[in-house]
């Protein structure tokens, strides 16, 4: 018995036109979002964009000022947190220090007056899920950070909620443990089939674990999609800059995908919704920029001459910083075997394909890195 409780074909969570104000600040602003049954969805965005507030409204710790929140197809407005079929894991695990691991995991079931024999079975199962059965008798202080986080997970999963909410649960772990836990969490989620809503400001974390990612900005969802879509087809300059690295150039749109920039004419063959004459922001990822020592023959479109001002060896890839003049520095990433033999001070030509050029309306925000 590993499947989450089913509620017909209903989506796990639906937020419809939800807003939450703190005084004049809209922490969440007319947000609409659906979490599908059994999916791993991340809320990704910078500090203050409303991720935690969104999660807390699903959990029931905050009440929206407008809009509706559905869990398993039913509105949960007015339903207290412990009655919602959701559970939360926080960054600070908040285990009870004076209780054993088993007692910590059993706590919620005891509050619900679950029969003792049931509790024993369920606690053992939950500890098995996170590979902590051997630690049932220990106190939290006798566990590592990663082990404490596993116990917190077991505690949140013991009554098989249909949705697990995770608020930066790996934030307190060191990098290696964090990466191990990312893999474990994803495996656990897949195995249990429970919907996970995972809050993070770490794009790598979101990209590696999620079925879908909601990129948040100022209390709204700016784009919702799988990692591939978010990375390859960002809907705005904001998304393009928040996930992965980018070279941004500002310019003015011409006809037919042409863009005039102070580094010369660029062209994009990707669809975009800009009009000729409009101020635009052009984005090209470092891994799509080629760097060569000789001036390439043919058109000068999407070709920029510059001086190498930095070379960083990164194992499989090599990263070049190229001063292209007019205050622009381009970042270029090449696979090490294919990287040009250019050193600091050398002249080189950066070049990229029109198909890799994204053109967005200039919205004034998010300046180039
Ligand atoms: P972080 O990654 O830093 O946790 P977040 O994306 O989770 O940020 P929220 O914590 O949801 O963002 O906050 C969104 C906005 O609402 C912020 O401007 C924040 O200052 C404000 N806010 C959140 N909680 C409160 C509160 N209890 N009282 C007043 N303002 C609040």
UniProtKB/TrEMBL annotation:
Domain (ABC transporter) spans 13-243
Keyword Ligase attributed: no
Q: Which SUPFAM superfamilies match?
A: MOP-like, P-loop containing nucleoside triphosphate hydrolases
Q: Which family does it belong to?
A: Belongs to the ABC transporter superfamily. Spermidine/putrescine importer (TC 3.A.1.11.1) family.
Q: What does this protein do?
A: Part of the ABC transporter complex PotABCD involved in spermidine/putrescine import. Responsible for energy coupling to the transport system.
What is this protein identified as? Spermidine/putrescine import ATP-binding protein PotA
Quaternary structure and partners: The complex is composed of two ATP-binding proteins (PotA), two transmembrane proteins (PotB and PotC) and a solute-binding protein (PotD).
This enzyme's EC code(s): 7.6.2.11
> Known PANTHER family for this protein?
SPERMIDINE/PUTRESCINE IMPORT ATP-BINDING PROTEIN POTA, SPERMIDINE_PUTRESCINE IMPORT ATP-BINDING PROTEIN POTA
